[in-house]
Write a structure and sequence with these properties.
- This is ADAMTS/ADAMTS-like Spacer 1 domain-containing protein.
- By secondary structure, this protein is mainly β.
- It has five domains: about 110 residues, no CATH class; about 60 residues; about 70 residues, no CATH class; about 50 residues, no CATH class; about 50 residues, no CATH class.
- Helix content is about 0%, strand content about 35%.
- It contains no helices and 27 strands.
- Strands 9, 10, 11, 12 and 13 form a five-stranded antiparallel sheet that branches. Strands 1, 2, 3 and 4 form a four-stranded antiparallel sheet that branches. Strands 5, 6, 7 and 8 form a four-stranded antiparallel sheet that branches.
- A hairpin with an 8-residue loop joins strand 14 and strand 15.
- It is flat and about 140 Å long.
- About 5% of the residues are buried.
Length: about 425
């Protein structure tokens, strides 16, 4: 159906399916602007799997499920699970066009065949009896094993073998009543809670209800009733055997410092102490888990600006009751180095002018005149002999030992005068080794 070239918009329409290629050619005359060409088509939504004829033998394609990829049911030796897509010819379309169709039949296919899980018997216990001999049972220790094609294998969690039932954990056994057997004591406590711990138990060979030499049981293996005899060492001592095995084979912790305390002093040289704990993988454990770890250094020096104090110069009164002056300077504590007075607390500065204090009691020598002389006195006038009074030195307790950079450790103390005037010759020492 063609509208003709006289129409403002030329239109070609086909109301039936096109069964062959359609070629559209546009004739352009002169320098006319190239026309715009639009086209659209309709595809039948017939969902039948077979070809759909339009009456002229034409086909609009057929729908079908095709496998695009596979998932595996297990990381080791699993079943391949197909992933289907809906196709029309070779084009993927919406899945709802194929919902009426069945998935194609697929032969069972295995995947991840490079490895396989299975149950493996790792150990057996000795025959466990309720009596000295006769029928009993052995414990079988099965573990899930991951086997690789290269022959290597590792133990993995039991749930990895969930596709296969776990074998029976016991099997019957018989101990003849005329054969020797081992009797064991209970395992002792582990001598360490982590790292390389050991525990022991004793074993005694019995034959015909008698304790005999271990030689008679030499062909009987040593194991635990739980079937785990891995790592057992045997030490013979007389008629007894000592069995040793490792225990608590888990990681130990290590000491770690959490934080440091403030300095013990506000100036000068002080000390800071550390708070620390036993850690394993960011978790705090009891101290016993760090017995094999060296403890950290928990004390360190903290150097702050120097401490300053007022230093008093020495003086000596020649006579009592007379004011004298002394030198008052700001100095660094311990070293005595003089610094600017502004570094010391001005309100605490001592006076530099003090009194020597009261005079000692005076002895008056009284002498009467010639007619009224008193025996023992030689003068008629009163004479006064004055001597200055000294105060007492007060020594405080010695401070902490400090190292001045050499091999000697020193400690110092503060020595003060109980009054404003003490005898320098009797002043106690201010430092000691």
């Amino acid at each position: 159906e063609y509208s003709g070239s006289d129409s403002s918009t030329e239109r070609i329409n086909s109301s039936r399916p096109i069964v062959s290629d359609l070629i559209v050619e546009v004739l352009s005359v002169g320098k006319l602007t190239n026309p715009n060409i639009y086209y659209q088509f309709v595809i039948s939504t017939n969902k039948h799997g077979s070809s759909s004829n339009n009456g002229n033998g034409g086909s609009v394609g057929k729908f079908s499920w095709k496998i695009n990829s596979f998932d595996c049911s297990s990381p080791c030796y699993g079943n391949a699970i197909p992933k289907y897509d809906c196709y029309r010819d070779n084009t993927i379309i919406s899945a709802h066009y194929c919902t009426h169709l069945n998935y194609p039949v697929l032969k069972v296919k295995y995947c991840n065949t490079h490895c396989k899980h299975n149950w493996k018997l790792y150990s057996k216990s000795e025959c466990i009896l309720n009596t000295e001999c006769g029928k009993g049972f052995k414990n079988l220790n099965y573990k899930c094993n991951l086997n690789y094609n290269n022959g290597s294998n590792i133990i993995v969690p039991d749930e990895k073998c969930s596709s296969e039932p776990k074998p029976e954990g016991k099997e019957p056994c018989v101990v003849p009543c005329d054969s020797p057997k081992w009797k064991y004591g209970a395992w002792g406590e582990c001598d360490a809670i982590c790292g390389d711990g050991w525990q022991t138990r004793t074993g005694i060979c019995y034959f015909q209800n008698q304790n005999v030499e271990p030689y008679y049981c030499r062909n009987i293996t040593h194991g635990n009733h739980d079937g785990d005899d891995k790592g057992i060492l045997v030490v013979t001592s007389g008629k007894k055997l000592t069995l040793r095995r490792k225990c608590n084979e888990r990681d130990c912790g290590e000491w770690k410092i959490d934080q440091w305390s403030p300095c013990s002093r506000t100036c000068g040289e002080g000390h800071s102490r550390a708070a620390y704990a036993c850690y394993l993988h960011a978790q705090i454990l009891p101290p016993d888990y760090c017995l094999t770890s060296p403890r950290p250094i928990v004390e360190r020096k903290c150097d702050l600006p120097p401490c300053y104090q007022w230093s008093l110069g020495g003086y000596k009164c020649e006579r009592c009751g007379v004011n004298v002056t002394r030198q008052v300077q700001c100095a660094i504590f311990n070293t005595g180095t003089v610094v600017d007075d502004r570094k010391c607390e001005g309100s605490e500065k001592p006076d530099n002018s003090v009194s020597c204090g009261d005079c000692l009691p005076e002895i008056a020598k009284l002498v009467s005149d010639d007619t009224g002389a008193i025996d023992g006195f030689e003068s008629s006038s009163t004479q006064r002999d004055t001597t200055p009074v000294f105060g007492d030195w007060v020594a405080l307790e010695y401070g902490e030992c400090t190292n001045k950079g050499d091999t000697n450790y020193m400690r110092t103390r503060k020595v003060t005068c109980s009054t404003d005037h003490c005898d320098p010759a009797t002043k106690p020492g201010t430092s000691s080794e």
